[in-house]
Design a protein that fits this description.
With 278 residues, this protein is of the alpha/beta class. The chain has 9 helices and 11 strands. The protein has a domain of 159 residues: P-loop containing nucleotide triphosphate hydrolases (Rossmann fold). Helices cover 33% and strands 24% of the residues. Strands 7-8-9-3-10-11 form a 6-stranded mixed sheet, sandwiched between helices. Strands 1, 2, 4, 5 and 6 form a 5-stranded antiparallel sheet that branches. A hairpin with a 2-residue loop joins β10 and β11.
């Protein structure tokens, strides 16, 4: 059974200018694998992840032929049951953890709360699990970090704390929304290695949302390319050179290479009107 099964997902917002369809028939099926969703800003990557979690704003309308997690229909699921899945079976790592962590609560208190919300029965057990999870994400001194507040953490450490919060309950699916974009290159590599290890050790599925096509192709098993609110192409990461859609080809041609000649201009992506229409 597929972990995520989406057919023709549509998200429409009511605006002053009228109805705006932000997601236009997105379809995606994945198991316990690493799937990268790539595309430019506004393509619908993050909104797709939020729709899976039921975190779309209240003024939006969400419809789909099918929106299921592990065989359960997320569209018809009661809010209480959805809250039990969110955080417990599906985790979300946001782009900038320093704005997601509560600034007035210690890291330990937030980790324990996350563990209790994820189904751990006692505070003592949740604290023990939190320390173990911090060690798993390569925090050298878990006890000290548990006492720290978010403003006392570096960007890379805050990102690892956010990952620990999301995996302390051992979810089946982790959605990582641009988890490396605010980090320097060396910390990016550490975070990617951590994600890879967590997926392998815990058998999770991973939705890796990014605008970096090259990064996604090197890290994930499959690549989903989005443009203007819909999926234009899905292919294996190791077969990216076989991409057929002109948008995917254009993204690839815009990337610099090591053999790029001095003074040679990179190609510019020329958008076409037919990419917008299904």
């Amino acid at each position: 059974m597929a972990l995520i099964d989406i057919e023709k997902l549509r998200v429409t917002f009511r605006t002053r200018a009228g109805m705006h369809e932000a997601l236009r028939g997105v379809s995606l099926t994945m198991g316990r694998e690493k799937v990268g969703i790539v595309g430019e800003s506004g393509s619908g990557k993050s909104l797709t992840g939020k729709a899976i979690l039921g975190l779309v704003p209240g003024h939006a309308t969400v419809t789909a032929d099918r929106l299921a997690f592990d065989g359960q229909d997320l569209l018809t699921m009661p809010p209480r049951q959805l809250r039990q899945i969110r955080g417990r079976r599906i985790g979300l790592v946001m782009q900038d953890p320093k704005y997601c962590l509560n600034p007035v609560l210690s890291v330990g208190k937030q980790l324990v709360e996350s563990g209790l919300a994820g189904g751990i029965r006692s505070k003592r057990e949740a604290r023990k699990k939190s320390l173990e999870t911090l060690a798993t994400v390569q925090i050298d001194d878990p006890e000290r970090v548990m006492r720290a507040y978010p403003h006392e953490l570096s960007g890379g450490m805050a990102q690892r704390v956010m990952m620990a919060m999301m995996v302390v309950a051992e979810p089946d699916l982790l959605i990582a929304d641009e988890p490396t974009s605010a980090l320097d290159v060396t910390v990016q590599l550490e975070v990617l290695r951590l994600l890879d290890r967590l997926v392998d050790q815990r058998g999770m599925g991973l939705v890796f949302i990014s605008h970096d096509l090259r990064l996604v192709s090197q890290f994930c098993d499959r690549v989903v390319v989005m443009y203007a609110g819909r999926v234009v192409e899905t292919l294996r990461a190791d077969e990216l050179d076989k991409a057929q859609h002109p948008y995917t080809r254009g993204l690839m041609e815009c990337l610099p290479t090591l053999d790029h000649a001095p003074g040679q201009r990179l190609k510019v992506l020329e958008r076409q009107a037919e990419w917008v229409t299904p």
